[in-house]
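Good morning,

Attaching, inline, the backbone tokens for the sequence recovery test we're adding to the shared suite. The designed sequence is right after.
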């Protein structure tokens, strides 16, 4: 029997840049998908969250449009790539919220893949695991995500943030301040990553690169966008500015300048809200209140359209800020949100139990 702990992630800055091969600055977090599993001749998985069992054979793996598609996707991609594997019998649990913008899908994919890698001796490198999981989500599940989520879940490091160039996959670890925590605030608004809104932004970004004759958003300058259609100019202008903010955020974190990092995060949020149209009333409310109550900065995390937001807060004030924002949120929306205080975590781990 094996136990896999697969973290979620937050992205401190660099939203919607990975599918144009730009810069991101995420961290794995200490909320986990936990998988207990053993080898079997077919696949049988019980989810404690959904209180549901799913079972399938390995001869013909097809989508069924439920949570088990992320499990099926990993078996599909391994067989597609020529790896010889058997099945698994497993139980899924953990404390990582599902559907809240913390990469529960990538966390689940990598939990299954890490188990199979260990149990069947596949000898996959971490970067190979990230790329396989991304392919599984793109081609089997049908979500056109970039590499950000899978890379972070695999490569996370305790007490560190990752600065990643999603084009070259070169990355560096930057120490996270020990007296600061990240407040993760789940608005209660569900969002579907594979919705038409996300796909439209990816399509517009790719078309803009084609019109500009550029390979990545890193190569683009805002002055080059002047002759583009207004929607393309507005959307891609955000991406160009966000790449610049990620570089500035990296430098601020390296020098221990938490105030500047926070300001950049907040600037990122309002650019996302006003020019990329991926925020919501609930996310905006959290950002305003978190900053008002003493956070260094705050922003939505992940794709947006609901889900979660984050704030950078002094550790000794974090609980107070969380409770005050929650109280105001309940008054305004008549809904009790969920929140977590998180720190940077190691990436996915596997051990025998």
């Amino acid at each position: 029997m094996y136990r896999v702990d697969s973290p979620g992630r937050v992205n401190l800055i660099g939203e919607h840049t990975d599918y144009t091969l730009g810069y991101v600055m995420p961290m794995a977090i200490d909320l986990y998908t936990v998988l207990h599993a053993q080898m079997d001749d077919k696949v049988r998985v019980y989810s404690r969250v959904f209180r549901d069992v799913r079972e399938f054979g390995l001869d013909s793996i097809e989508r069924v449009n439920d949570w088990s598609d992320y499990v099926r996707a990993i078996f599909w991609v391994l067989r597609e790539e020529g790896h010889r594997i058997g099945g698994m019998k497993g139980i899924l649990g953990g404390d990582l919220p599902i559907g809240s913008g913390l990469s529960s899908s990538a966390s689940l994919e990598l939990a299954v893949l890490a188990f199979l890698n260990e149990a069947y001796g596949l000898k996959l490198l971490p970067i190979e695991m990230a790329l396989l999981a991304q392919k599984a989500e793109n081609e089997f599940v049908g979500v056109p995500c970039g590499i950000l989520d899978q890379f972070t879940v695999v490569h996370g490091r305790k007490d560190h943030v990752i600065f990643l160039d999603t084009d070259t996959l070169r990355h560096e670890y930057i120490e996270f301040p020990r007296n600061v925590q990240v407040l993760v605030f789940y608005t209660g608004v569900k969002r579907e990553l594979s919705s038409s809104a996300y796909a439209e932004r990816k399509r517009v970004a790719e078309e803009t690169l084609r019109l500009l004759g550029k390979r990545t958003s890193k190569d683009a300058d805002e002055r080059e966008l002047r002759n583009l259609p207004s929607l393309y100019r507005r959307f891609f202008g955000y991406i160009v500015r966000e790449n610049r903010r990620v570089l500035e955020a990296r430098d601020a974190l390296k020098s221990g300048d938490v105030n500047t990092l926070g300001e950049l995060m907040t600037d990122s949020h309002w650019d996302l809200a006003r020019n990329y149209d991926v925020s919501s009333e609930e996310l905006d409310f959290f950002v305003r209140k978190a900053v008002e109550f003493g956070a260094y900065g705050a922003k939505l995390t992940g794709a947006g359209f609901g889900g979660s937001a984050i704030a950078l807060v002094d550790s000794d004030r974090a609980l107070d800020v969380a409770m005050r924002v929650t109280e105001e949120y309940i008054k305004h929306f008549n809904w009790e949100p969920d929140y977590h205080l998180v720190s940077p975590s190691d990436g996915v781990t596997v051990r025998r139990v």
